[in-house]
């Protein structure tokens, strides 16, 4: 699927948006047939990951040129919204980057943002943040249905690794582990990662009814939570453990570790990965487009 394109209301044609860089690194953005946007409602698809910093500038430039050419209103579908995890302030002076990004998009001219399992939204639906209307769609039930199809008649438990994405389990038993993270590492160390280690992960309060468990979360980053949860479940005698996630980063080589640890992995291509069971292109065509056309 292209990294960026747009459609006009009442028309399914996908017009490309192209990006390149000048020798000094400045971004060059070109919106094809941009004059057709005049007095039209526009739906723009744009991936913001990887290279989220430069791709955010690409998006702002694209919205700006559409507004300049008279677009009536502009909505954007971003499968994964970077900076969405930075939605709280833990230390004085820390930027709440989720708010900053939402304000940027709103002020640039984005009317509605469509996203998948946005980290700071605790369920599907609509809310405002930073002046931006955000419509969150969840693919959790689809992922669980895909797993159910793969195991046939076998019974299984659905478990969340923490309370953060507990809405993903609410229609499937509402079983969630309890996770506690520590403080940030020393940020004064040059090139250190802004990361908070997992201090504890508790599942003793959960009753496991079956020998098959599907761990579901909105995202897998370094995989540390899923790996720890899997080890704990297998130590308790669970035979088969699989995971499902909307946003599959698999950072720091975690794909290899996870594939060796888990019995199955199910994910979308919101972060472009091979073997995704749910395609963003299908979500755009079958869910986002009809929803936007009705608006």
Tell me about this structure.
The radius of gyration is 20 Å and the shape is globular. The two termini are 25 Å apart. Strand 14, helix 5 and strand 15 form a beta-alpha-beta unit. It is built from 6 helices and 15 strands. Strands 3-2-1-4-5-6-8-7 form an 8-stranded mixed beta sheet, with helices on both faces. A 5-stranded parallel beta sheet has the order 10-9-13-14-15, sandwiched between helices. The chain has 295 residues and is an alpha/beta fold. The mean pLDDT is 93. The protein folds into 2 domains: 151 residues, 3-Layer(aba) Sandwich (Rossmann fold), CATH 3.40.50.2020; 128 residues, Rossmann fold.
Give a short overview.
The protein is α/β, with parallel strands linked by helices.
* Helix count from the secondary structure assignment: 6
Low-pLDDT runs: none
- Secondary-structure element series: EEEEHEHEEEHEEEEEHEHEH
CATH names the topology of the largest domain as Rossmann fold
CA radius of gyration: 20 Å
